[in-house]
Amino acid sequence: MRTRLDHLVTSALQQGSAVPAFTCYDFTTALAVVGAAEESGRGVILLVAPKTAATPNGLRLIAALRGLADAASVPVAVQLDHATDLAVMADAVAAGADSVLADGSSLPYEENIALVVAARELLAANGHPDVVLEAELGGLAGDEDRAFSADQPADQSVVAVAGLTDSAQVEDFVARTGAQLLAVAVGNVHGKYKGEPQLRWDVLQDIAVRTHIPLVLHGASGIPAEELVKAAAMNVGKVNFNTELRTGVLATLQEQLPAHRADGENLQALLGHWNRSAGEFAGATLATLTR
Ligand SMILES: [Zn+2]
């Protein structure tokens, strides 16, 4: 069922849990994620990458995800992830996204605020004043869509931790942006971690006492489950996953591809494995965050 992202997150936090958000580059993954959410009886968030939303087919994917969310038996929200381009935000919302991460975290502080304010004004002017806005404060290292680059192979996939969120800025930032959720940088990174991730719980605690809006942890792939379960106590109500989901699906496809080619080019059965891999990851993540 169509559900406002902030309401979904707030009600999960009231029960002491966080809502997982999964990047969906395609409909097969989205079907698996929503299926896992229905099986667990929990809500879920479908994320669309900005590079996806910037294409005509990506906008059609958003419309399809919207339909999937509307028909689901559990609360589902569709969010445009990490958008910096106002035109992409407007197009994604027109196509059916009900939330946007207006991400000015790589910009200077005042420009970050200005981007979120401009996003709100544009969406309201387009007849969508109720779109839920997430903003991001603090630089998050790594690439959202790629765990590592071709010239920097997996075994050296070193992404340095960028600047932590400055908790002293949080109250001013939230008040001036009017954001309904705040993504933070507390040692989390996009892509693969170098060694064990070291989350800065002290920084997260400092942030949590300075605002009442739910916090968001990006780049959760690789953070141990026993760490993740502590996050909801610090008002982290949304946790984004991408890398681990992709890794699992790609490994499954690589393993299954030869047999399914040999079996009469059996794409249908191969998609079944894709669905199972994504669904198992989503189901395990839902169980972790709500235990
Ligand atoms: Zn992210």
Low-confidence stretches: 153-161
Number of strands: 8
Q: CATH fold name, please? A: TIM Barrel
Helix content range of the residues, please? 40-55%
Tell me which ligands are bound. Answer: zinc ion
Structure, described:
With 291 residues, the chain is of the alpha/beta class. It has one domain: Aldolase class I (TIM Barrel, Alpha-Beta Barrel), CATH 3.20.20.70. It is 47% helix and 14% strand. The protein has helices at 5-14, 27-40, 50-53, 56-71, 86-95, 109-125, 170-177, 201-208, 225-231, 243-262, 267-289, and strands spanning 19-23, 44-48, 76-83, 99-102, 132-137, 181-184, 215-217, 236-241. Helix 5 runs parallel beside helix 6. The radius of gyration is 18 Å and the shape is globular. Strands 1-2-3-4-5-6-7-8 form an eight-stranded parallel beta barrel, surrounded by eight helices. It contains eleven helices and eight strands. The structure holds zinc ion.
What attributes does this structure have?
291 residues; alpha/beta; TIM Barrel; 8-stranded parallel barrel; 11 helices; 8 strands; 47% helix; binds zinc ion
List the helices and strands and how they pair.
Layout: H1 5-14, E1 19-23, H2 27-40, E2 44-48, H3 50-53, H4 56-71, E3 76-83, H5 86-95, E4 99-102, H6 109-125, E5 132-137, H7 170-177, E6 181-184, H8 201-208, E7 215-217, H9 225-231, E8 236-241, H10 243-262, H11 267-289
Parallel strand pairs: 1-2, 1-8, 2-3, 3-4, 4-5, 5-6, 6-7, 7-8
Helix pairs in contact: 2-4, 2-11, 5-6, 10-11
The structure holds zinc ion (ZN).
